[in-house]
Fold this protein.
Amino acid sequence: MSLNKSFLLVLLFALFQNINSESTISGKTVQASDSMVVTRHFLATEVGNTILQNGGNAIDASVAISFALSVVLPQAAPIGGGGFMVIHEANTNQNFTIDYRETAPARATRDMFITEGIVNRELALESYLSSGTPGTVYGLFIAHQKFGKLPWRQLIEPSITLAREGFVITETLGTTLSDYADKLAKTKDGKKYFLMMIR
């Protein structure tokens, strides 16, 4: 299906996304005649704009932005999480929804977080048992397969570059990493990949 002449309205809902004063600009109006990209991080916005300028459509931009946010602001759109995508295809006037929320692991049980009749909060919130099976990459892949235009590699390459070359972290990410430093320090990978960012 060609989306060259279609306008897509894409709403991408990432889990645990919060809005704070740093991500909100008041009193300014921005207008565009063809397309616009707005994200919580300027580098992700640049990635989305570049995809559109290179002939990508709204789905391509959304996929690329999601991967970019996973690198530069991982709490906003983590590849280890999940979400929803709602798409309106203007030329057919059809709506599509892709649900890629996390799912419970196959061996999950109803009582897996209960110890001696009481909910064990540490098991439920901070153990390996509390992890859901991520859906983000799968959901973005499905959206790209059904509606995307550019090659998959072209959409993820900017995020690979950001991860390899590094970037200056924002105050928001720095604060989040500091707030979770004790929890991140409990695992080898947490120390290796996240705490090195705030040293």
About this structure: Strands lie at 8-14, 83-89, 94-99, 114-115, 118-119. The chain has three domains: 1-100+135-167, 104-132, 169-199.
